[in-house]
Amino acid sequence: MADTTGESPVQARRVGDTAIIYASDYLNKLSGERIERECKRQLESGSRALVINFRDTELVNSIGVSILMGVIDAAEQNKARLIFSDVNSHTAKLFEMLGLTRHVSLAKDEGEALSQVAPQKNAVGS
Amino acid sequence: METNTQRLLHTFATLADLGQEIANTADFEEMLRNSFHLLLGSFAIRRGAVGEYDRDRGELRLVAARGLSQSQDTSLPISSEHARELASLGSALSLDDSTREADRFLEDHHDAFPGVEINLLVPLVVRERLIGVVLLGEKATGEKFTDEDLEVLRTLTRHIGVGIHSHRLLEEVESKADENRRLYDGLRTIYKETVHAFAAAIDIKDRYTQGHSVRVGKYSEIIAREMGWSDDAVEGIAIAGYLHDIGKLIVDLNVINSPDRFNAKESKEMSRHPAAGYEILSPISHPYADIPLMARYHHERMDGNGYPDGLKGDQIPPGAKIVTLADSFDAMTTDRPYRKKLPLADVLEDFRANTGTQFAPEVVCAFCRAFLKEIEGTTKEQRLIRLLGKNYENVERVSPLLSQLISDLDGGAMAATAH
C-alpha cells in the first residue's frame, strides 16, 4: 500500500511490475491529484503498467477527467500501459463520449485488467 | 442515456463547478488553474494553456498549462495592436482555418510550443478588451471541434474571462483604497501639524500663557481617554484643546497682555474670543466632530451663567465640558501676571466648590481618577504629572483629596447640585 501525500492515503498495490491504484468515490480535483501523484510515483519506481480501479467511483467531474488525461500523458511518456477497471456504466459512457477510451483500455475487473497487461509483462521480462 | 443528453449534463456539471471556482477570490491563480482544468476536462483536451494578458507589459503570462513543454512561467509578447485584433474576434478561433490573426499568432509564438499542435485559440474578452487567451489542443476523440463545441467553449471561457476581470477590479479597488488611505493619513498629518502651528501662534500672542493651548489639548485628551472615548474622539478633543483659544487672535494684543485683572471693558473684549473662535473654525472641514462648537462653548457653565450663549447642563456638548475643565486647570496651575499658580489642594478645592455650577461632575471625576492613577502608578505614563512640571513636587500629597472628591462625586453627593 502506498501513501505519498500525507493526506488521505491512496490505496495502491503492486502485482509484478503492474501497479493497481484505487480511485475514491468522487474523482474531483482533490482525489484526482492524489491519484495522479501516486500514478507518477509508481511509474518512476518502475511500473510498466498501471491499472486504475474505479470500483468505488460513483462520479467523475471535469477536473477529474482533465487529471486522467494527465495520467494518460504520463503513461504514454513512460511507455507504460494504462487500463481502467471496474468502471460503472455511467462513467464508462462518459469516458467513451469524451474519447478517453481511444487512449486507455477498459476492463470489467482487476483480473481482466491484469490479463490484458500480462503479454506485455512477459515481453518486458523476456 | 443518449450521448447528447450525457454531453449536456456533463457541460452543466462543468458550468456549476466553474461558477464555484470563479467565486473563489482568495487565490486568483488557483481559481484560474482550476477553471482551466475544468475546461480541459469538459472536452477531454490533452494539451492547452491559459494566460492572463498584461496590457501595460504587452505580454501574455501563462498561468496554467497541460501537456506543453513550456513551463508555466512563460510570457509571450503580444503587441497592443495584435491584442486589439484578438479582442475584436471575441470568440474561439480555430487555428485549422487560416486567418490572419491565427497565422500571426502561430508565427509569433511558434517557438513557445515546439512540437505541440494548438487547434484553438480563444481570446478572453471583457468590455471589448483582451484580458487573456486560452490555447487548446485537440480533443481526446480526435474529432474536430463542432459549432456546438465552440458555443460551449465560448460560454465556459466567458466565465473564466469574468473571473479574471473581477479579480482585476478587486485589485484595482484595493489599490485605490490603499492610495486613499495613504492620502488621508497624509492630510491628517498636515492637518495636525497646521493645528500645532496655530496653537503655537495663539500662545505666542499671549506672553503670560505660553504653551497653554497645547497643555489644554493634552489635559483634554487625558480626561476623554479616562471617560472611555474612542481613539478617534480622543484625537478630536486634543485638537479642540489646541484650538480652543484661536478666537484670541482677533482680541486686542494690549488686552491679552494686560498685567492686571481685566476691567469691564477688557473683559467684554476678551469674552469675544469663544464666538470668534467658532467663526474662524466653522468654515474648515475638520476630520473630527464639533471642533468649532468646543471652541465656542468652552466658557459656558453648567448653571447657565457662562458665555457666549448661556447654555446650561446637557445643552453644553460633552467635549466643551472637558475643554472647560482642562482650560481652568491649566489657568490655575500656571503663573498669571496678577497671581501666582495655586497649590494643587486649592485647585481641587476650587473644583469641589464649582462642580455642578461651573464644571460637569463626570468630567471632574474622570480628571481626578486619571490624576490618582498616575500618582498611584497604575498607569504606565505620567502625562499629567509631567505637564504640571517640576514646580509641583510631592503631588502624592493630594491623593486623599482626589480620592475623597471621586468618592463624593461617585456617591452622588455633589451630582445633586449639578444641572
What labels describe this entry?
heterodimer; A: 126 residues; alpha/beta; Transcription Regulator spoIIAA; 5-stranded mixed beta sheet; 7 strands; disordered N terminus; disordered C terminus; B: 419 residues; alpha+beta; Beta-Lactamase; Hypothetical protein af1432; 2 domains
Task: Give your account of this protein's structure.
The complex is a heterodimer of chains A (126) and B (419). With 126 residues, chain A is an alpha/beta fold. Chain A has one domain: STAS domain (Transcription Regulator spoIIAA, 2-Layer Sandwich). Chain A has helices at 29-44, 62-77, 89-98, 110-125, and strands at residues 12-15, 18-22, 26-27, 49-53, 59-60, 81-85, 105-107. In chain A, helix 1 packs parallel to helix 2 (62-77). The termini of chain A are far apart. In chain B, strands 3-2-1-6-5-4 form a 6-stranded antiparallel sheet, with helices on both faces. Chain B has 2 domains: 3-175, Beta-Lactamase, CATH 3.30.450.40; 207-417, Hypothetical protein af1432, CATH 1.10.3210. In chain B, helix 1 (3-22) packs parallel to helix 5. The longest helix of chain B is centred in the middle third of the chain and has 59 residues, at 147-205. Chain B contains 16 helices and 6 strands. Chain B is elongated, with a radius of gyration of 37 Å. In chain B, a hairpin with a 4-residue loop joins strand 1 (48-54) and strand 2. The model of chain B is unreliable at 415-419 (pLDDT under 50). Chain B has 419 residues and is of the alpha+beta class. At the A-B interface, helix 2 and helix 3 of A face helix 1 and helix 2 of B.
